């Protein structure tokens, strides 16, 4: 991001005589208040700079240029997600605001507040982020600064489950030729709308909104920017839930390199959780553990306790589900210590406490089923539904069904499960039910076979429930096949499901992995070098990668080609 783009908010604010009136968000209620005055003072540079220079207050011509460079540097650092350094620069810049002319000083304060708001939200500190975002909506805020502030407000309200305020905040509107900050704000706005739709199990709407977010990124920012990891992960979750597991993996794996280097917490959390779920579904528990350990390491580096808690909770689910109760108990102890730590964000503390409650129930079911705290599980489920997190509440409902079964409360367990089965076909809930525990699967089978007759009529549910069991058995068979074991290639015939690669394209990637150039590949396959280039272009697009190294790494990880020597060394 160059200085002009990084500075669009500050520079335009001090150079523009008028700006559109914008509504502001009330700090007390989160609602929209009356607009700020729709004007800014006349441009200050030509008229006021010499006068201030004569008074010795500040060399405006030199001082403002340095401030611009510092603000630009702060935005560039923020794009690398080094939030601590951004906050240090913001504190340093604040000392300059009082030495500037009124309009320039107010514009600088607003941009500093926007920088802080973005940094705090990336650090998962909602309270500080919201306070800074509201400050950034001052009368000196330019459109770009205001867009950042509004997006931060919406992000905080979404994370806190306050959907009324979330929907009340104005969405960013794209100009015909938006700057980088405005485009990124619009991308995140669409991604946040997609996240809400996913939470509410409106899967098709979530996919369309997230796809639009990716398109905004491609059109106005560039291909494969770090910001597009969030909407890509949302699409991946939808694809996974709809049973398109390979497609979901390809989409997320293609962005893992940027997620490891610079990403939002939500991107990292969703990407690692999804890849671990896919690995477990394929019977690759050890690979899932590696993925979740990587998430823990990233959480430590970035200071994200919520990511660490989510990783530990998923590790507990894997260990408890595979009968490794002691390992699950050790992870639970670490999660309990994390939940006991004091932190500034009350919301983060509550979410970690929910992780701990759910994980504790899983360990209890594996170790001593009669000790499971059903009341706490019910409360967690009610809280998630009340917050609008319906999709996240489904695994908790399945866990509650299992807990009710082992405590001899079969009638209630059946009714809770029947409620999920009624909902599933209408919203497209699929893979989460396919991956349910063995106890829940047995209960579904008993309903399908009519060995158990629920209170309500369930005849219309039987075909869908039966299909879930068929798909569950199919996935189990695939997981047991040697070709589906970890680090073992899949069959190399035909078109490869999940990537759309033809056999010719797969062969080209394999030769790339052997270190051959395009000309050498053409000679090997007896085709023209231009044809190799055309195939390469198409397969890069199918895999959502940028070059041959990324293509070879991804296709190897998916098991479509043998591990090249360069990667196995």
From TrEMBL:
It comes from the Bacteria. GO terms for molecular function: DNA binding. It holds the Pfam family TPR_MalT. Residues 493-559 form the HTH luxR-type domain. Signal peptide: none annotated. The keyword Transcription regulation applies. GO terms for biological process: regulation of DNA-templated transcription. Keywords: DNA-binding, Transcription, Transcription regulation. This is LuxR family transcriptional regulator, maltose regulon positive regulatory protein.
């Amino acid at each position: 991001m160059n200085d002009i783009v990084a500075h669009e908010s500050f520079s335009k604010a001090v150079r523009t005589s008028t700006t559109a009136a914008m509504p502001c968000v009330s700090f007390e209620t989160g609602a929209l208040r009356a607009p700020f005055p729709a004007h800014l003072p006349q441009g200050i540079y030509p008229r006021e700079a010499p006068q201030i220079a004569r008074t010795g207050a500040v060399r405006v011509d030199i001082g403002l240029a340095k401030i611009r460079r510092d603000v630009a540097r702060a935005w560039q650092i923020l794009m690398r997600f080094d939030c601590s350094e951004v906050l240090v620069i913001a504190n340093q810049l604040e000392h300059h605001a009082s030495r500037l002319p009124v309009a320039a000083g107010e514009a600088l304060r607003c941009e500093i507040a926007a920088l802080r708001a973005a940094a705090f939200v990336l650090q998962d500190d909602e309270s500080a982020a919201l306070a800074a975002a509201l400050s950034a909506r001052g009368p000196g805020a330019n459109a770009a600064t205001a867009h950042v502030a509004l997006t931060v407000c919406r992000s905080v309200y979404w994370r806190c489950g306050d959907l009324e305020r979330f929907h009340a905040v104005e969405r960013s509107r794209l100009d015909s030729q938006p700057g980088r900050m405005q485009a990124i704000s619009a991308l995140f706005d669409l991604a946040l709308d997609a996240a809400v739709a996913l939470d509410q199990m409106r899967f098709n709407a979530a996919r369309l909104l997230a796809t639009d977010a990716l398109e905004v990124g491609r059109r106005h920012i560039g291909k494969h920017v770090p910001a597009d990891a969030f909407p890509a992960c949302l699409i991946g979750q939808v694809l996974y839930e709809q049973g398109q597991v390979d497609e979901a993996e390809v989409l997320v794996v293609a962005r893992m390199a940027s997620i490891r280097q610079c990403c939002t917490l939500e991107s990292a959390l969703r990407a690692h959780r999804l890849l671990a779920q896919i690995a477990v579904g394929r019977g690759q528990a050890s690979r899932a553990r590696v993925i979740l350990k990587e998430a823990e390491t990233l959480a430590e580096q970035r200071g994200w306790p919520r990511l660490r808690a989510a990783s530990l909770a998923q590790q507990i689910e894997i260990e408890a589900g595979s009968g490794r109760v002691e390992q699950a108990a050790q992870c639970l102890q670490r999660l309990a210590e994390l939940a006991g730590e004091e932190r500034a964000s009350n919301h983060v503390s509550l979410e970690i406490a929910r992780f701990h409650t759910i994980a504790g129930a899983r360990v209890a079911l594996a170790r001593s089923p009669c000790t499971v705290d059903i009341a706490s599980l019910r409360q967690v489920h009610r809280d998630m539904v009340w917050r609008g997190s319906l999709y996240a509440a489904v695994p908790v409902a399945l866990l509650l069904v299992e807990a009710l079964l082992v405590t001899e409360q079969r009638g209630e367990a059946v009714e809770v499960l029947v409620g999920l089965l009624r909902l599933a076909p209408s919203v497209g809930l699929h893979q989460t039910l396919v991956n349910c525990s063995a106890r829940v699967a047995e209960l579904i089978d008993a309903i399908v076979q009519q060995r158990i007759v629920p209170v309500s009529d369930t005849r219309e549910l039987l075909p869908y429930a039966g299909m879930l069991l068929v798909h569950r058995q199919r996935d189990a068979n695939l997981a047991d096949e040697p070709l589906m074991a970890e680090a073992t290639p899949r069959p190399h015939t035909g078109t490869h499901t999940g990537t759309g690669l033809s056999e010719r394209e797969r062969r080209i990637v394999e030769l790339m992995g052997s270190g051959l150039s395009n000309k050498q590949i053409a000679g090997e396959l007896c085709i023209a070098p231009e044809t190799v280039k055309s195939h390469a272009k198409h397969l890069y697009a199918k895999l959502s990668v940028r070059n041959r190294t990324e293509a070879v790494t991804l296709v190897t990880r998916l098991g479509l080609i043998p591990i090249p020597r360069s990667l196995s060394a």
